[in-house]
Design brief:
166 residues, Four Helix Bundle (Hemerythrin (Met), subunit A), two-stranded antiparallel ribbon, 61% helix, MST-like, DinB/YfiT-like, Mini-circle protein
């Protein structure tokens, strides 16, 4: 998250619906990246809560969520749904840098996928019957913002950094 990201959100107030949705989602993605950036491997894996939730685990989870909603659901490409029981679990060989690179790639793919469809484009979805791209974007804003908040708390407990840019 940079000052430019914050200004982009503020500048989207007069934009169209799609611009506002995409800008808010990118803002939340940026917060997640910012919260994971600058941590040591040990800090990124540090558990401050009783669950397996860590800053690095949040990045891994959100990478899977991006793939699920934009590739598996929106593009209707067959793949196994993410396993919620393992999406936060880190392998010994997974680094924060690698996880952030994978997250960036997943977000870029999601942007490219969304760009190919109208907001009203509807696809089948196992739980809800069908969902529109608009719904997916709103859901992803909610999902990413919720986990950005988790990352904010974990980062504060790790090194005291707080806020959008901290």
């Amino acid at each position: 998250m940079t000052d430019a990201d914050v200004l982009a959100v503020l500048g989207s107030v007069a934009g169209g619906e799609r611009e506002v949705l995409e800008t808010f989602l990118d803002c939340q993605r940026g917060i997640v990246r910012r919260k994971a950036t600058g941590l040591t491997e040990e800090q990124a894996r540090q558990r401050h809560v009783s669950s397996a939730t860590t800053v690095a685990g949040l990045v891994k989870h959100l990478t899977m969520v991006e793939h699920n909603w934009f590739v598996r659901v929106l593009e209707q490409r067959p793949s196994l749904p993410p396993d919620p029981g393992t999406s936060f679990v880190l392998g010994a060989d997974e680094t924060v840098g690698d996880l952030l690179t994978a997250y960036e790639a997943a977000c870029a793919r999601s942007r490219a996928s969304a760009a190919r469809f109208a907001l009203d484009h509807v696809v089948p979805q196992r739980q809800f019957g069908q969902v529109s791209l608009r719904w997916i974007l709103v859901h992803m804003i909610e999902e990413t913002a919720r986990h950005a908040g988790h990352a904010d708390i974990l980062r504060e407990l790790t090194d005291g950094a707080t806020g959008l840019l901290g």
